[in-house]
């Protein structure tokens, strides 16, 4: 496959993974759940679209009302859905979020979902063409973990992107309920060899590597193959590193009254990638994404509180006055 010149790219971001239906416990300890939407790369795609990027999403949905509502959501957000396939015998995955003293916890009902049935053969045609026409391809550890075939498909998509001159971002999103640690280490290692920008969290990489020092984790990430690393530190902000440019800096967190951190990391990733695609430096893109993530934790759900660009700019202006 021949590389497409950057100026000819049709999409700023193409994301691949599983979109899901969310049921979020808005009254902790009580059986009251707000139905919303989720899925890590889907959240990132919506966040990027709200930041002004041209976005496409690659997935498979079940032939059910939940699948229909997810596709309608993506269309409403201005995201290209022409590469989404509906599987007549598959189901759309769902998950539940509960809240307690230790934060939020997830319970999934996704085994055998339509997205977990994706194969490398499915990529050929519209999905591979959209990858070739994108500035960035975004994949996550969950994209790899939901099934062996999804793992093969995700890694193959990353390889296609590299061959086409499309930059690859990878969010670790380690979920040990989906696969054992040793398998995760092996497959995430393969993804890092194909990755331009690695977007892990401190918690994920502490489990994966046994390291606890953020700088040591970033060093490990570079040694594994990532040229650029943005280590998400939750309320403490992020650690940015660009090996080629000799950049290493800590971006402080923003103090807000957090209600629900569901999807905050995805919000950060989507906004960061949108701003990079739109021409920002890594530092400026991360500052923008940091503000967006601070906004999204102030409400319930993974998608409903993802901010529009105007809200991020307004928040940034208020911070500048302080």
List the helices and strands and how they pair.
Layout (H helix, E strand, L loop, with lengths): L10 E6 L3 E6 L7 E6 L1 H11 L4 E4 L1 E3 L2 H12 L8 E3 L6 E7 L2 E7 L10 H4 L2 H7 L1 E7 H5 L2 H17 L2 E5 L9 H13 L3 E2 L3 H8 L4 H11 L3 E5 L5 E5 L4 E5 L12 H14 L4 H15 L12 H13 L1
Parallel strand pairs: 1-4, 1-9, 2-7, 5-6, 9-10, 10-11, 11-12
Antiparallel strand pairs: 2-3, 7-8, 12-13, 13-14
GO molecular function: ATP binding; kinase activity
Protein name: Sugar kinase
Pfam family, one: PfkB
What key attributes describe this structure?
eight-stranded mixed sheet, alpha/beta, single chain, four-stranded mixed sheet, UDP-N-acetylmuramoyl-L-alanine:D-glutamate ligase, 322 residues
Describe this structure in words.
The chain has helices at 40-50, 65-76, 120-123, 126-132, 141-145, 148-164, 181-193, 202-209, 214-224, 264-277, 282-296, 309-321; strands at 11-16, 20-25, 33-38, 55-58, 60-62, 85-87, 94-100, 103-109, 134-140, 167-171, 197-198, 228-232, 238-242, 247-251. With 322 residues, it is of the alpha/beta class. It has a single domain (11-321), classed as Ribokinase (UDP-N-acetylmuramoyl-L-alanine:D-glutamate ligase), CATH 3.40.1190. The chain has an eight-stranded mixed β-sheet, with helices on both faces. Helix 11 (282-296) packs across helix 12 (309-321). It is globular. GO terms for molecular function: ATP binding; kinase activity. Keywords: ATP-binding, Kinase, Nucleotide-binding, Transferase. Residues 12-308 form the Carbohydrate kinase PfkB domain.
